[in-house]
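Quick look at the format.
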Amino acid sequence: MAISKDTIEKIRLSNSIDSVIREYLPDLKRVGRNLKACCPFHSEKTPSFVVSPEKEIFKCFSCNVAGDVFKFVMLLDNISWIEAVKKLAKKTNIEIQETKQDIIKMSEKTKLFDILESSAAFYNKCLLESPNAQKAREYIEKRGINCEAVNKFKIGFAPKGQFLQWVLKKGYKNDDLLKAGLITKTERGIFFECMSERVVFPIFDVQGRVVAFGGRTIADSEIKYLNTPETAVYSKSSNLYGLFQTLPELRKERKIIVLEGYMDVVIPQQFGIMGAVATLGTAFTQNHAKLVSRYSDRVTLLFDSDNAGRTAAQRSLEILVEDNIECRVSALPEHVDADEYLNQYGKESFLKLLEDSSKSAIGFMIERVYGGLSSDGRKNSPEIKAKAVSTLLDFVAKSSNSIIQREWIRDIAQHVDVDEEAVWREFKKKHRLKLRGYLQYGKNSSEQVVKVKKDKKTSMSLEENLLNLILNNRDYIEKTDSNCFEDVRCRKIFELTVLGLNTVGILNTLSEEDKNWFSELILNTIEYNDIREAFDIILKDIDISRLERKRQRIEKEILLMSDGKKEKDEKIFDEYKKLTALLKGSGR
């Protein structure tokens, strides 16, 4: 749905961020120019959630969630952006004009949600009341699922041939059911119910709407588990089973356990182990990682102990590490599922097993890679060690955090029993080759190189300091130009500022990762005794830093000349002398 920018801005201005957030967080207190409270998205005792009425944004400096008033309502109410806009518009009596096309599109999705919700209620009622569901009820009881869990997850049963009769009597058409993924059509034009003779597990999105179904056969079907296909309202790579049911706990604990099946989620949550979710018949994806990072700070992967399970864990780790999500891997005994273990040994034993078997991301990878390569007894072979280190360094490179990289390299050196400096040299060599590839063959190579080098900052760079000063003192925009910024992100923000975008306008053009960086940058307001003097000093320091980097580049060329690896060039020597003199005069 398209809403005009003017209407969105009108809704925003009519709903000040501090007044809206105060309705959810009555303990919001003023601290200087900003407001602070304990973050509603994770459990904390010391407030780290900051609201800036002036800049119209919020930011938690602990869990890194950030955004504008619409984003806050989205996250707290588990609704989409468009629904948040509509909610705030209704709150302030602002009418939103919808086009005929928007109305038709929304109407079609609304119809799908209605069909899916009604179907879930039908399946649930059949499980509880239908004489034909006795075998399904026995299966549920055998697996240890109680009535409370059945109601919480709206578990149901699809008796053979009954669903199609019931749903058509409700006034829905076969075409509607096909779009919802509830039936299939053969080449001969015969319709079949997807979930027939299966225990049915409704799949909810984060807003609590039924979007699809999973079914476990209780007949003699070769296909034990079956999911309904992707539709206009369902994407299996963007949903996690059980996430909606555990959202209230995630806001407090922010810890997720990723498992493999429906029962692996239902039983742990039934036992009070919150944060248990599962993928839906697909490998872990980038979209899953984004979903996980939105609601948790730490992820535990609990896959089967066989090779397929370990491979799935490794692939999931590689994706999570790229998104800088802290993750660990735990293991159950072979041929035992999470629900079976809990029903047999109970919650405390299960939690102890998780803790005792828990391995860090790099610990799991070292065991899998080095252990796998040295399984034939050639553990101390230099070739095996070199191959293991090379593979593990590819994994290390997936993290963009230099502190994590350093610690992981230390772990690799210790476990593989090789010199740490040698591992570092190998890592740097790989890194240089990767950068060279970007420079030679990559499009927009400067941006890609920045991405490779990017790291979480604990303090602001000179360019970030300059940007911070300009954003908080916009009179200085005219005294600056984009050439002051080599950092791609800083230059982009500056150029958006020159175009006249306000803080919220800039924020809404950025990726989630850059939103976190930008909101932290702008809320870290630096108070200067003399802004003009500070501005001049920062500009001078930026110029000096560039001259120093240029001198270092020339110094490398001179070293190559002195080693006879490059032809001597007097111009380069003269330029080096001039730069040295300039830097000496600057106090460097």
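Next, a different chain entirely:
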Amino acid sequence: MSDAITTEVIRHALLAGAEEMARNLCRTAYNTVVYEIHDYGIGLHDADGDVVADAPGIAVFTRANDHGVKKSIEFLGRERMRPGDVYILNYPYWASAHTLDPLVFAPVHHEGELIGFASCRIHVLDLKQKNPGYVLDSTDMYSEGLVFPVTRLYREGVQDDDVFNIIRFNSRMPERTIGDIQAQVSACVTGVRRMSGIAATYGAGKLSSAMAAINDHGERLARLALARLPRGMWSAEDIVDSDGVDLDRPIRLRATVTVTDEEMVVDWTGSETGVRGPINLPLGQTHALCSLIFKAMTTPDTPVVAGNFRPLRVVTVPGSVMHAEPPMPTFTLWTGLLAGEVVLKALAQGMPELVPACSGGDVSSMMGLGVNPRTGDAWLEATNEAVGFGGHAGGDGEDGIMHLSEPGCRNNPVEVLETKSPMVIESYGYVPDSGGAGRHRGGVGVSRVYRFTSESTGICLVYKTRSAPWPIAGGRPGASARIVLNPGTEREVVQGGSYNHLAAGDVLANITGGGGGYGDPLARDPERVLADVVNGYVSVEAAAAEYGVVIDAGSWTVDTTATTALRNSRDHRPVSAP
């Protein structure tokens, strides 16, 4: 047994070990998506694969790592996992992600006993998927790249050159891909070293009992928080723009959330089936996104441990968009980024004072690639853009921050993108009037405009353009995300998810969504509306049209008389929430 003080010391040692893994990864990765954006998921797990410490990056990766490690134990058996082994897994239905998000993990042994695992998941650049960069229109898993079903990269400490040669000869960018995978290995070896050191200091028995206590404590915290939530059952729907194949078919996501004394159940029955394109989710990813929302509603202030999620149950229909089965395509995982807010939309019906309105709703990602004329080498750079968060009972939504699915992430700086690619960032800033009006305003989105200086490919991953970010309690919807090619010209095209072949001089604008508003816009303090206008979040015209506030643009003051008259007019009666 481990006493409470020793357990707490071990808990912090594990957290420090996970953070050291992340720092090691960022120092050694080749890919800016990893070391700039923090597109990773890192965990230390007990012998059953349950996470006991993580280093936050992509929030849905951590629980997905749990699922992958557990499936690997089931497939191989613990007895076949030897000290010094390092594995790669990217079979989507076990790994809980697409093929370019491989899970690399290593077992941890102490005196011959398996005591835990270290895991690291990142986005790598190329594993022979049918299109360079990203796949938007695959119809089965066989066109989505090389698949590794729990394959040893290192066997008892010795590198398996055969596996690395397969990767080398099947990747369009072998040096960076192998470099990133080796960075994952390095992170896992660091985790093995740190967990082994804890076991050497305190003994394997005390470490194991401490990890069990950590997860039991995480469960107790979650159940205490669950007991404070309202009881009930609520359903909500939203759509993904398309599946990338049937472009005119919006894909329905439906969640029914039930809160009882014992558990929260998220039931995805009623979500779309027969989805041909690659937006289907592996089951582990569905569990991961539900876990993110459950964590946010119950224990947001403590580190992630598997025990936090014992009161959560997820129900899916095999073969549906929320539960892919082989060989269903899964490459474009944007469903997993959008679906979390469907759960929040359901909860908002029963607990609007606890849930924010919808955010801009999308991880609006732009990926550019081609041959760099400065070097003659292949290049690929990407970034996810910030969105506006939804207004909530406590105040306005945040302006221009990373989507809720990636709270540990950042975007790629202008200087990095321009240095490493033939792209010039022409403008970058907030989008006025994109936040939904309300007593508490939705946060505004951002716009980044790229000019390509050589022939390139621009891949846009934006899948919430057909439905607006929803409000709460009489607020107004936020503005939807969109991509605009060659804005302001006769060749202008407005679109969402797309694979674009661009000529030198072409311009691409990535415009993200704003959050929904909370409460009646006419109840917003006119001085706060004035501050929004002065700061560029709301235009003078929208102040009048949406909030009934008349701003004197000459003196930058509120015209009180005109505002009172406008707010009392028939055209500015409060609207009901959709």
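Confidence is low (pLDDT under 50) at residues 574-578.

See the schema section for token definitions.
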